[in-house]
Amino acid sequence: MTVYFIGAGPGAADLITVRGARTLAACHVCLYAGSLVPRELLAECPPDARLVDTAQLNLDEITAESVRAHEEGHDVARLHSGDPSVFSAVAEQMRRLDAAGVPYEVVPGVPAFAAAAASLKRELTVPTVGQTVILTRIAHRATAMPEGEDLATLGRSGALMVLHLAAKYVDRVVEELLPHYGADCPVAVVAHASRPEELILRGTLDEIAGKVKEAGVERTAVIMVGRTLGAAEFRDSHLYSAERERHAC
């Protein structure tokens, strides 16, 4: 058997990939985080599948469920919100499965920042304005940030910054980024991206904290800070330029 770490997408049930849906439909055990994964996705599971909500389970208990399925000869769909490659806590699960001799594969999904950018109708990398995107978070009660990855240090680049798990601490975000991005820097906060209850807040760095607090946004949101969010006057990409030399195949 195999454990499949499947990216369930940012929230909308139809944003799971075709591969993810097919894999889910073939697994007779499904582990999912009930607080984050849409219930509609569970309809893709086989009718007789064992469904386990992991929202209240610790790492040992989650691993035990996969080991049990392995011993029973069942494939496992481990549904994670967004994409497993960022802020998904799959690394420690993989390490446990390696130790237990349980094979696994990863099925990528649509990350929250991509869904947020789609809702904003913005490309995050704009020619001559910004070509770098930083995905990060801030340190609070959760795991501490490594040395050199604090916002003040990362902000020196001026790159488009996407912050996860930070809406509740928006005052700290503003305080640490203001010296590097400036008070007039465009900011967008997208809560519940792709879901019916999606909320978009736009503003500048010096005013966004007030808007976030007024809207009551504290979780399930991404904060985007950077000049590309407001870019209008920029050079066209070389990709489709008429000056680009093209050769017929």
Word description of this protein:
- This protein has helices at residues 18-26, 59-72, 90-100, 112-120, 151-154, 170-181, 208-215; strands at 3-7, 29-32, 50-53, 76-80, 104-107, 133-136, 160-164, 186-191, 199-204, 221-225.
- It is of the alpha/beta class and 249 residues long.
- It folds into 2 domains: 3-107, Tetrapyrrole methylase, N-terminal domain (Cobalt-precorrin-4 Transmethylase, domain 1); 112-230, Tetrapyrrole methylase, C-terminal domain (Methyltransferase, Cobalt-precorrin-4 Transmethylase, Domain 2).
- The radius of gyration is 20 Å and the shape is globular.
- It starts with a strand and ends in a 24-residue tail after the last strand.
- The mean pLDDT is 93.
- InterPro entries: 4pyrrol_Mease, 4pyrrol_Methylase_sf, 4pyrrole_Mease_sub1, 4pyrrole_Mease_sub2, Cbl_synth_CobM/CibF, Siro_Cobalamin_biosynth, Uropor_MeTrfase_CS.
* Radius of gyration, in angstroms, nearest whole number: 20 Å
How many distinct helices?
Answer: 7
CATH topology of the largest domain: Methyltransferase, Cobalt-precorrin-4 Transmethylase, Domain 2
What is the end-to-end distance? 45 Å
Number of strands: 10
Runs in which pLDDT lies below 50 for 5 or more consecutive residues are none
Listing every helix as H and every strand as E from the N terminus to the C terminus, the arrangement reads EHEEHEHEHEHEHEEHE
* Top CATH class of the largest domain: Alpha Beta
Based on secondary structure, the structural category is alpha/beta
Q: What is the count of structural domains? A: 2
GO molecular function, one term: precorrin-4 C11-methyltransferase activity
Pathway: Cofactor biosynthesis; adenosylcobalamin biosynthesis
GO biological process, one term: cobalamin biosynthetic process
Family: Belongs to the precorrin methyltransferase family.
